[in-house]
């Protein structure tokens, strides 16, 4: 399922040989995570209701996972060295800039995101937004390349494509956080300016009660939920495709595996969009109402029915053969 590699090398050595910029980024983020954990232990400061070094730690994990995932995905384009190089350097430079600014803000004792209290803070927030746009465009380039790529296992290839597509949607959902909230606009109209522009939470202020580690609001909506699940489709759907290719019954035709990948992909996309809709309604992720639970039931039910239909079709073909 991946490009040929030498069995004598470890995974990190193979990643370095395959893609130096992104491997450097991933290793640098592991080192950043270690430093951030030390900061969590030694630094008692709190920024926007959370330990000062929690955001660098979470971003380091996310960026490391994303960079190594990209190394693997780009290995499916062995004949596109120039494209692979462009995507790799775009992502590496953009995310290094992003992480440097996040760490700088922590050292300065201020918020990195949504902070427009001073011209310098606003400039930092703008540069961070631009960096994420660069990452999104690089991911789009990868997605287009995968659409043009051919692979012996069509179902597995589509698991990669759908993972990239839903990952891009998850990234794009983060831009819903950058618009001023109604409270921020009201303060601006009252002459207090816009020291903060945008927020993670909907209906409540950032920094309130939240779930452990992730910090998702437990008293209002939180757009980080949809962003998180959408972004990690990059890892989840290829794993689904791999599992189907590896363990689906031998009697299943390529069309059955293809239908199963699309069923899981569309169901997962529905879940991501549902969590975004739930957040925009100001509802905590951990406290869904009847409407949200009904929507979850509809998505799960549709996926189960579709999977059952695929299994029945495959079984009928097996019996007929």
TrEMBL record:
Transmembrane segments: 21-42, 57-77, 84-108, 120-146, 158-177, 225-247, 259-280, 292-314
Keywords, alphabetical: Membrane, Transmembrane, Transmembrane helix
Origin: domain of life: Bacteria
Protein name as catalogued: Uncharacterized protein
Protein source organism: Luedemannella flava
């Amino acid at each position: 399922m991946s490009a040929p590699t030498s069995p004598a090398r470890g995974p990190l050595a193979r990643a370095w040989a395959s893609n130096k910029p992104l491997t450097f980024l991933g290793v640098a983020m592991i080192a950043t995570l270690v430093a951030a954990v030390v900061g969590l232990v030694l630094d008692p400061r709190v920024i926007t209701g959370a330990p000062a070094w929690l955001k660098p730690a979470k971003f380091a994990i996310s960026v490391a996972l994303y960079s190594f995932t990209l190394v693997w995905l780009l290995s499916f384009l062995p004949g596109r060295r120039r494209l692979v190089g462009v995507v790799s350097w775009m992502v590496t430079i953009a995310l290094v800039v992003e992480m440097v600014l996040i760490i700088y803000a922590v050292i300065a004792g201020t918020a990195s995101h949504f902070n427009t209290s001073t011209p310098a803070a606003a400039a930092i927030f703008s540069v961070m937004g631009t960096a994420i746009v660069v990452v999104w465009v690089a991911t789009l380039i990868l997605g287009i390349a995968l659409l043009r790529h051919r692979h012996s296992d069509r179902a597995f290839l589509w698991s990669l494509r759908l993972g990239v597509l839903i990952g891009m949607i998850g990234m794009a959902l983060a831009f819903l956080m950058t618009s001023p909230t109604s409270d921020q606009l009201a303060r601006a109209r009252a002459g207090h300016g816009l020291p903060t522009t945008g927020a993670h939470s909907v209906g409540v202020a950032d920094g309130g009660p939240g779930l452990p580690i992730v910090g998702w609001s437990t008293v209002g909506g939180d757009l980080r939920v949809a962003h998180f699940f959408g972004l990690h489709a990059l890892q989840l759907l290829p794993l689904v495709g791999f599992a189907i290719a590896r363990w689906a019954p031998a009697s299943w035709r390529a069309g059955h595996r293809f239908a199963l990948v699309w069923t899981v992909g569309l169901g997962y996309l529905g879940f991501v969009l549902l969590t975004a809709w739930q957040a925009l309604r100001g509802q905590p992720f951990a406290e869904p109402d009847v409407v949200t639970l009904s929507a979850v039931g509809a998505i799960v039910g549709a996926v189960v029915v579709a999977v059952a239909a695929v299994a029945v079709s495959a079984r009928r073909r097996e019996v007929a053969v």
